[in-house]
């Protein structure tokens, strides 16, 4: 490709709204241009890298994951979303529209429904399973805060695969095949990936895995075990840790007490710090009680007397409570993780209750919520009461101090399981740096990460709600199980740039570089033109993607553009160096002089070696 025939559109400065390196560089290099909030156009230069990235995913999903590409529409009937139940639960991030026939339509934010509806139609027998399809296609999510350019856009490209399997064993095979494909893809892109399991692999296999890149601008907090032989890594929204003991200020563990609950007048004691001062005791001896508003909980609360007034909605996909409350009990030195809490409550969202709601549920204001008197199901963290495998419960705190449910009073000698009974025992604490690994006991550290991909065992969620059946080996009707597998294509492209740049611009890995080599004549004229053209033609005929900067610009401008765009190798043809030319890999500081008639062969070898290294 010659610059004169291409569209180069570089900017000296990035618009001020771009704050991270990849966003700035994508705009400056002319890879993307903003069309609207969260809406980015790829310019021809960007499309070249984008298509290469898609092709790497395609190759690995075809070969390693054994998948077949299909192409559903982006706009799909609202009907199938109503069947799955997600018409209601997806919330405002799903863009809905009406067509001229007044039919509900959805701009796909993901495609479980479309895939399930398509495969359902032709499915009769176990012999047709598994069905392993993927697409690389446009998605739309009406993100509240699109940011960092294509890292979190509204319209983006997702590579999304789906499998329908006859049984768990088959799903496991599909899942592992995709997992292997993911490692191959990110290796070929030169990205160091942290696989983050949702549950601890050692304890019964994992049902979900996120593929993260470490990044200071990452949206996710990762909890990582430094022990390499262990390898535990989890999103803080899922991370678990070893139990640690509730010890008093002298480091002593308290025994179960026979003393009855005693009210203590505590005027002006509202916070945990106030309590520490007033009782002269460690927060590990206090039970913190928090009232949460719970949205769309699918828990069955019918055994809970406080829930009888809460509205319960009947749905084919299962009953749920649009609005309910929970009183969460946790050791006072710990924090509640709301994602873990929502998951324990099978809810779409949990929000701390406001003052009025707290008063309704607790009979007292913030700071005095009592575990004994709260009028809501008690969700008790395992720091307070632990559920054992055999169905019994063990109190993890004894002789504790807590709110009384009466303004201005606390209570002491609180005995969990004697003075209150959990509705649900769950691990809802926020795991932090310094907590211990549940597998090996190693001391966790924490880092920020960005999710590039996700593999997930869906189970029967969609096949049940959308009524998919097949005849199994014994001729009995059964519901297939499903897996889904997603990679954010734009976000991955941005992450490659985020990880590979310097003050001059992008440093593309060879596998996704828009061009592999650029030839820059200082002046496109006379002998320099002759030599540059020859190198260009030779490389082209050798199948190398070469860019010839034949523009009538100052050399400084051409160098700056080629460095900003990040082409991995530059061959500079200057009068004073002839019969030699400059050979400069973008990632290296120094250029090397090579004879002009050897330059093309050397460049081709360089490109092929780099490709071989990454694709190995
Ligand atoms: P996030 O937590 O970042 O919103 P998600 O859990 O909603 O991601 P999935 O539904 O698992 O994402 O989608 C699969 C992949 O699609 C993600 O791993 C991510 O790389 C990409 N992705 C999701 N939302 C966006 C977005 N708004 N812009 C760009 N890529 C996205
Ligand atoms: Mg999201």
UniProtKB/TrEMBL annotation:
<dbReference type="InterPro" id="IPR004154">
    <property type="entry name" value="Anticodon-bd"/>
</dbReference>
<comment type="subunit">
    <text>Homodimer.</text>
</comment>
<dbReference type="InterPro" id="IPR036754">
    <property type="entry name" value="YbaK/aa-tRNA-synt-asso_dom_sf"/>
</dbReference>
<dbReference type="GO" id="GO:0004827">
    <property type="term" value="F:proline-tRNA ligase activity"/>
</dbReference>
<dbReference type="InterPro" id="IPR007214">
    <property type="entry name" value="YbaK/aa-tRNA-synth-assoc-dom"/>
</dbReference>
<dbReference type="InterPro" id="IPR036621">
    <property type="entry name" value="Anticodon-bd_dom_sf"/>
</dbReference>
<comment type="similarity">
    <text>Belongs to the class-II aminoacyl-tRNA synthetase family. ProS type 1 subfamily.</text>
</comment>
<comment type="function">
    <text>Catalyzes the attachment of proline to tRNA(Pro) in a two-step reaction: proline is first activated by ATP to form Pro-AMP and then transferred to the acceptor end of tRNA(Pro). As ProRS can inadvertently accommodate and process non-cognate amino acids such as alanine and cysteine, to avoid such errors it has two additional distinct editing activities against alanine. One activity is designated as 'pretransfer' editing and involves the tRNA(Pro)-independent hydrolysis of activated Ala-AMP.</text>
</comment>
<dbReference type="GO" id="GO:0005829">
    <property type="term" value="C:cytosol"/>
</dbReference>
<keyword id="KW-0547">Nucleotide-binding</keyword>
<keyword id="KW-0030">Aminoacyl-tRNA synthetase</keyword>
<dbReference type="InterPro" id="IPR023717">
    <property type="entry name" value="Pro-tRNA-Synthase_IIa_type1"/>
</dbReference>
<dbReference type="InterPro" id="IPR002314">
    <property type="entry name" value="aa-tRNA-synt_IIb"/>
</dbReference>
<keyword id="KW-0648">Protein biosynthesis</keyword>
<dbReference type="InterPro" id="IPR050062">
    <property type="entry name" value="Pro-tRNA_synthetase"/>
</dbReference>
<protein>
    <recommendedName>
        <fullName>Proline--tRNA ligase</fullName>
        <ecNumber>6.1.1.15</ecNumber>
    </recommendedName>
</protein>
<dbReference type="GO" id="GO:0006433">
    <property type="term" value="P:prolyl-tRNA aminoacylation"/>
</dbReference>
<dbReference type="InterPro" id="IPR006195">
    <property type="entry name" value="aa-tRNA-synth_II"/>
</dbReference>
<keyword id="KW-0963">Cytoplasm</keyword>
<dbReference type="Pfam" id="PF04073">
    <property type="entry name" value="tRNA_edit"/>
</dbReference>
<keyword id="KW-0067">ATP-binding</keyword>
<dbReference type="InterPro" id="IPR002316">
    <property type="entry name" value="Pro-tRNA-ligase_IIa"/>
</dbReference>
<dbReference type="Pfam" id="PF00587">
    <property type="entry name" value="tRNA-synt_2b"/>
</dbReference>
<feature type="domain" description="Aminoacyl-transfer RNA synthetases class-II family profile">
    <location>
        <begin position="32"/>
        <end position="509"/>
    </location>
</feature>
<keyword id="KW-0436">Ligase</keyword>
<dbReference type="Pfam" id="PF03129">
    <property type="entry name" value="HGTP_anticodon"/>
</dbReference>
<dbReference type="InterPro" id="IPR044140">
    <property type="entry name" value="ProRS_anticodon_short"/>
</dbReference>
<dbReference type="InterPro" id="IPR004500">
    <property type="entry name" value="Pro-tRNA-synth_IIa_bac-type"/>
</dbReference>
<dbReference type="GO" id="GO:0005524">
    <property type="term" value="F:ATP binding"/>
</dbReference>
<dbReference type="InterPro" id="IPR045864">
    <property type="entry name" value="aa-tRNA-synth_II/BPL/LPL"/>
</dbReference>
<dbReference type="GO" id="GO:0002161">
    <property type="term" value="F:aminoacyl-tRNA deacylase activity"/>
</dbReference>
């Amino acid at each position: 490709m010659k610059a004169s025939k291409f569209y180069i559109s570089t900017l000296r400065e990035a618009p001020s709204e771009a704050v991270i390196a990849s966003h700035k560089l994508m705009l400056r290099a002319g890879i993307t241009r903003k069309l609207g909030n969260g809406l980015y156009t790829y310019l021809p230069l960007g499309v070249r890298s984008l298509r290469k990235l898609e092709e790497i995913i395609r190759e690995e999903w075809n070969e390693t994951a054994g998948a077949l590409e299909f192409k559903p529409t982006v706009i799909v009937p609202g009907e199938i979303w109503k069947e799955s139940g997600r018409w209601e639960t997806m919330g405002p991030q799903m863009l809905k529209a009406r067509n001229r026939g007044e039919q509900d339509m959805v701009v796909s934010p993901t495609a479980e429904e479309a895939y399930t509806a398509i495969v359902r139609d032709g499915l009769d027998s176990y012999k047709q399973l598994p069905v392993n399809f993927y697409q690389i296609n446009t998605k739309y999510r009406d993100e509240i805060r699109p940011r960092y350019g294509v890292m979190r856009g509204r319209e983006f490209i997702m590579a999304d695969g789906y499998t329908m399997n006859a049984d768990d064993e088959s799903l496991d095979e599909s899942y592992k095949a995709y997992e292997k494909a993911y490692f191959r893809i990110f290796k070929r892109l030169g990205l160091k990936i942290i696989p983050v399991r949702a549950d601890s692999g050692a304890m019964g296999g994992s049902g979900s895995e996120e593929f993260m890149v470490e990044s200071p601008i990452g949206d996710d907090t990762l909890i990582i075990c430094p022990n390499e032989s262990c390898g535990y890594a989890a999103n803080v929204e899922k991370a678990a840790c070893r139990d640690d003991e509730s010890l008093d200020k002298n480091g002593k563990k308290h025994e179960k007490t026979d003393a009855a609950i005693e009210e203590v007048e505590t005027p002006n004691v509202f916070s945990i710090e106030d309590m520490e001062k007033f009782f002269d005791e460690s927060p590990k001896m206090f039970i913190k009680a928090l009232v949460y508003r719970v949205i769309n909980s699918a828990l069955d609360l019918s055994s809970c007397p406080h829930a009888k007034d809460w509205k319960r909605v009947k749905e084919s996909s299962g009953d749920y409570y649009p609005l309910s409350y929970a009183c969460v009990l946790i050791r006072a030195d710990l924090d509640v993780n709301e994602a873990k809490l929502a998951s324990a409550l099978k809810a779409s969202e949990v929000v701390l209750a406001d003052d009025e709601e707290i008063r309704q549920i607790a009979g007292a204001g913030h700071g005095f919520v009592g575990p004994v008197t709260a009028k809501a199901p008690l969700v008790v963290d395992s720091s307070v009461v632990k559920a054992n495998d055999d169905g019994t419960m063990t109190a993890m705190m004894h002789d504790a101090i807590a709110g009384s449910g009466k303004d201005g009073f606390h209570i002491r000698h609180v005995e969990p399981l004697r003075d209150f009974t959990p509705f649900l025992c769950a691990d809802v604490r926020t795991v932090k740096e310094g907590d211990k690994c549940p597998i090996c006991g190693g001391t966790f550290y924490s880092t920020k990460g960005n999710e590039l991909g996700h593999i997930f065992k869906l189970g029967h969620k969609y096949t049940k709600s959308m009524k998919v059946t097949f005849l199994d080996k014994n001729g009995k009707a059964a519901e297939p199980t499903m897996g889904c597998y997603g990679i954010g294509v734009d976000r991955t492209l941005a992450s490659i740039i985020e990880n590979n740049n310097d003050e001059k611009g992008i440093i593309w890995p060879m596998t996704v570089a828009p061009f592999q080599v650029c030839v820059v004549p200082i002046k496109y004229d006379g002998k320099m033109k002759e030599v540059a053209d020859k190198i260009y033609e030779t490389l082209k005929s050798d199948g190398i993607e070469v860019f010839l900067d034949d523009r009538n610009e100052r050399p400084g401008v051409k160098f700056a553009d080629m460095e900003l765009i990040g082409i991995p190798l530059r061959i500079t043809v200057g009068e004073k160096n002839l019969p030699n030319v400059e050979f400069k890999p973008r990632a290296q500081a120094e250029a090397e002089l090579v004879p002009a008639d050897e330059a093309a062969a050397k460049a081709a070898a360089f490109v092929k070696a780099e490709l071989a290294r990454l694709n190995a």
